[in-house]
Each structure stands twice: as C-alpha cells, then as structure tokens.
Design goal:
heterodimer, A: 138 residues, alpha+beta, Aldehyde Oxidoreductase, domain 3, five-stranded antiparallel β-sheet, B: 80 residues, Ubiquitin-like (UB roll), five-stranded mixed β-sheet
Chain lengths: 138, 80
C-alpha cells in the first residue's frame, strides 16, 4: 500500500507501477487534475492546505476500508498533492489492482469518493478577481 | 486544563491565527468546546460543517477532552 501526501509533482507512472501485481488482471486509476474554471469563474491557481498527520492517517484508513470491502484488492496507491497547483497539474491519484475489472472500478471510485468526504485537505481557488475556500459555505 | 488547538483553512482565517491556546474546565466536552469557540468567533457558525478532531480522528461531540490531546478544528474538507 502506497499512501503519500506530497508538495512535489505527482509521478503518475510511479503510482501505476506501485500497483502492479502478478495476480491482477485489472488496474484502475483515478487522476484528479486542476481545471481552469469553477462555478463559472476562471481559476488561475489552487492552493491545497493539509492537516498532514491526520490526512495521511485518514487516507490509509480509507484504503484499509476498501481492502476489507474488496478482499481481492491486490495493491492500492493514493497520492495527494498539497501546496500551489496550476491548471493541468495532478492533484490526486488513486490506483488499484484487482483480478477482474468490476472490483477495480468499484474500489477506485469508493476510495476517491470517501477521500473527498473525510481527508483533512482544504482547497482554495484563486480567480483573477478573488479567492474562495471550496465548500466552506452553503 | 490548557488546550492547544490547531486551525486550518478557513478556520485559520476566521480566528486569525494558526493555533489557539485556551483554558477549559477539566472534562470539557467537544460539544462545549465547539459552542465556546462559535460564540467567540461567530464566523464559525457560517460554515457548511464544523468538526473537531482529536488525535487524528474525528471526535464525537460527547468526547471529554484531556490536556494532552492533539486537537484540531475541521472545516468542510475539499481534497481530491
């Protein structure tokens, strides 16, 4: 299991290599990238702030929950970026390997969806004319 | 007892600093701490959600705090 929070660019190839397994016929990856607009405003850059120790602990916990739910999971990699990111940068990668593809899709989606709900990372969007902490206000 | 509370994201901006130190009665619950903070910093009431973490886990509101606990305020997360 590879769990990482980093302020360096994410190496997608290395994450995929980390989930290679002889027993796996399927590798599924979700790659979250920074897009140039949000709720109709032009995004210039993002800043991710993390409560590091809890974020890593919670990412590991989510991966372990997936492992319990899909015992056939071979390998899991979760890497999240923090700091300043620009359009096109990779913010997060979740990669899993399983014997067959159905569980691979399901486990990958479960991990990224749950990460977005519980992991202590906060995203601030910077526009040409302002900035907002995402999801902070109703 | 003395509590040290770490702040992140928007809570850091609402409170105006990255760490809070305050004195609380022994056995103060998470809920009491949240109420105390929300009355001191009304901006905390405007958040979509507001949680407290103790020792890297989300804490139940009836959890009774200890001086050695690592406490953090958790505004709505937005990773991914």
């Amino acid at each position: 299991m590879l769990i990482e929070l980093t302020d360096q660019p994410i190496d997608v190839a290395a994450a995929l290599a980390a989930v290679q397994a002889d027993g796996a016929g399927a590798v599924n990856a979700f790659i979250g990238t920074v897009r140039n607009q949000s709720t109709g405003r032009s995004v210039v850059r993002l800043e991710y702030e993390a409560y590091d120790s809890m974020a890593v602990h919670q990412m590991r916990k989510v991966a372990e929950q997936a492992q319990e739910r899909w015992p056939m999971l071979q390998q899991i990699a979760v890497i999240h970026r923090k700091g300043t990111l620009y359009i096109g940068d990779v913010a997060v990668i979740v990669a899993v390997s399983t014997p067959h593809r159905a569980e691979s899709f399901a486990a990958c989606q479960y991990i990224i969806d749950t990460i977005k709900q519980v992991v202590t990372i906060w995203k601030k969007e910077f526009y040409e004319d302002g900035q907002v902490w995402v999801a902070a206000h109703p | 007892m003395n509590l040290r509370i770490a702040l992140f994201g928007i809570t850091k901006e609402i409170v105006g600093q990255s760490q809070l130190e305050l004195t609380a009665p022994e056995g103060q619950s998470v809920e009491q701490l949240m109420q105390q903070l929300q009355s001191t910093y009304p901006g905390l009431r405007q958040l979509t959600s507001f949680a407290v973490a103790v020792n890297n886990e989300y804490a139940a509101t009836d959890y009774r705090l200890h001086e050695r606990d690592e406490i953090a305020l958790i505004p709505p997360v937005s990773g991914g």
